[in-house]
Amino acid sequence: KNQVEQSPQSLIILEGKNCTLQCNYTVSPFSNLRWYKQDTGRGPVSLTIMTFSENTKSNGRYTATLDADTKQSSLHITASQLSDSASYICVVSAGPYSNSGYALNFGKGTSLLVTP
Amino acid sequence: DAGVTQSPTHLIKTRGQQVTLRCSPKSGHDTVSWYQQALGQGPQFIFQYYEEEERQRGNFPDRFSGHQFPNYSSELNVNALLLGDSALYLCASSVDWRQGHGYTFGSGTRLTVV
Questions:
Q1: pLDDT above 70 for B109
Q2: Is B53 buried (19+), middle (13-18) or exposed (0-12) by CB count in 10 A?
Q3: If 0-12 CB within 10 Å is exposed, 13-18 middle and 19+ buried, where does residue B22 land?
Q4: Which of B100, B103, B110 sits opposite A41 (nearest CB)?
Q5: Cβ distance B56 to B47 under 8 Å?
Q6: Which runs of consecutive H residues, i.e. helices, occur in A6-93?
Q7: How far apart are the CA of A55 and the nearest CA of chain B, in angstroms?
Q8: Chain B CB contacts of A41 below 8 Å
Q9: Which element (helix H / strand E) includes A68?
């Protein structure tokens, strides 16, 4: 069964501090891994996407890493801002499956709160 | 270049009623997927449409049905609403369901069943 586990479930940090979110997955066959930021009541917005051969991908203050051997990914946020407060969701795409394309497997997300 | 547009943004329905949610994909996208996201949970896959046909389906009952139109827009229909159907319904569009990347999400429709 394909699974995506994220930790911690929630996190509170002070503005300006760094933090790292974790994602472990058991998905086969692996296609790619994405990190999304989701503000409350809004749709997820893509931060990074990595394929099997990519170890790291940056998007401004967000840096994602991928270890395909251990099936682990992390999202590092540098110099956090109040606007970083959101849920961060790890999504692992599996496939291709014959006649059914790809399937997205979602983690439950890490809820990040950045305080002044 | 418009992204994914969903309507309505909020909706309140009574148990037993039927509801229709709408999604217009991002320009250039031809595949539409629907997800249900309960409060505090990750999105759960409902189904995916490409070329006006349902290509994949998640573990949802037949009360959940959909449709895709020739202009690639899509509808999600839910019959005989239950309290447990209250959730944020997300639509995501992409190019060619066989490619597996490039998903863009809409802002969602918040459905409350009372």
A1: yes
A2: exposed
A3: middle
A4: B110
A5: yes
A6: none
A7: 18
A8: 88, 108, 110
A9: none
In degrees, to the nearest 5, what angle opens at C-alpha A29 toward C-alphas B29 and A45? 40
Nearest to B14 by CA among B67, B85, B63: B85
Q: Does residue A102 surpass a pLDDT of 60?
A: yes
Q: Which of A2, A52, A50, A6 is nearest to A26 (CA)?
A: A2
Residue of B85, B112, B104, B109 whose CA lies nearest to B30:
B104
| Side chain identity, residue A71 | K
> Hey, are the CB atoms on A43 and B108 less than 8 Å from each other?
yes
Kindly report, residue by residue over A59-99, the tens digit of the pLDDT: 999 999 999 999 999 999 999 999 999 999 999 988 776 65
> Is B101 in Cβ contact with A101 (below 8 Å)?
no
DSSP, collapsed to helix, strand or coil, labels residue A113 as strand
> Environment class of residue A37 by beta-carbon count within 10 Å: exposed (0-12), middle (13-18) or buried (19+)?
buried
- Go through B57-96 and write b for each residue having 16 or more CB atoms within 10 A of its CB, e for each that does not: eeeeeeebbbebeeebbbbbebeebeeebbbbbbbbbbbe
CA trace torsion B16, B91, A36, B98 (10° rounding)? 130
Report the Cα B74 to chain-centroid distance in Å: 8
Nearest to B32 by CA among B66, B59, B58, B61: B66
SS3 content of chain B, % helix, strand, coil (to 5): 5, 50, 45
Question: Which chain B residue's Cα is nearest to A97?
Answer: B98
Is the distance from CB of A91 to CB of A4 less than 8 angstroms?
Answer: yes
Q: Which two tokens stand for residue B100?
A: 């597996």
